[in-house]
Amino acid sequence: MLAIRPPKLVLFRGSVDSACGLASSAVGPFYCSPDSRVYLDRSFLEDLSKRFGAPGEFARAYVIAHEVGHHVQNQLGIMDKALQQRGRMSESRSNALSVLVELQADCFAGVWGHSAKQRNLLDPGDVEAGLGAAAAIGDDRLQQQSRGRVSPESFTHGSSAQRVRWFRAGLASGDVNQCNTFETAKP
């Protein structure tokens, strides 16, 4: 069994310099595999409630757990494999593969949520808050809000329904083996 080393956490507002380059707050939270750090934009976490309508501590915890899910993917070699494959694909196929990586991180976040529930760490309404956050930051919803239209071929994180489905799969099963989006999801 592989022992996963915990990632480092970096909180920022405005912009941050990482091993992945300079990122502005427009990027939002992200994981940088070269330095194994989770970068959390404080303004995004505030906007989650105000702008996206996903209030609550567990909504924020879902976002953090999603980024830590990318760290797990990195430790397992999934991110490197996906990056290599994406370099040889068309933009639309690369985007579809990106969606599968993101949905797996959502499922891993759900596995963490399942564990938190088993340890009686959740309050009433927490699961609903996490599901609400997953729905709030689906590509379809974000594109509709920012552009007034939805372009599925440009999705990089998945639709609201896909994100909810995979977060829910992890929450229900608590089993990372149920998170193989690459075999069970349709891009």
Key traits:
5 strands; two-stranded antiparallel sheet; mainly alpha; 8 helices; 187 residues; globular
What does this protein structure show overall?
The protein has eight helices and five strands; from the N terminus they run βββββαααααααα. The chain is mainly alpha-helical. It has a domain of 128 residues. The strands form two sheets. The chain has a three-stranded mixed sheet. A two-stranded antiparallel ribbon has the order 2-3. β2 and β3 form a beta hairpin. The radius of gyration is 16 Å and the shape is globular. It starts with 7 loop residues before the first strand and ends with a helix. The model has no long low-confidence stretch (mean pLDDT 92).
Q: Which range does the strand content fall in?
A: 5-15%
What spatial form do the alpha-carbon principal axes imply? globular
Number of strands: 5
Poorly predicted sequence stretches spanning 5 or more consecutive residues:
none
- Lateral strand order in the biggest sheet: 1-5-4
* End-to-end separation: 30 Å
Largest β-sheet summary: 3 strands, mixed
Number of helices: 8
Question: Mean of the pLDDT scores?
Answer: 92
Order of helices and strands: EEEEEHHHHHHHH
Helices and strands: which structural class? Answer: mainly alpha
Gyration radius from CA atoms, angstroms: 16 Å
Helix proportion range: 55-70%
SSE blueprint:
Layout: E1 8-12, E2 15-18, E3 21-24, E4 30-32, E5 37-41, H1 42-50, H2 57-76, H3 78-86, H4 91-118, H5 126-136, H6 139-147, H7 160-173, H8 181-184
Parallel strand pairs: 1-5
Antiparallel strand pairs: 2-3, 4-5
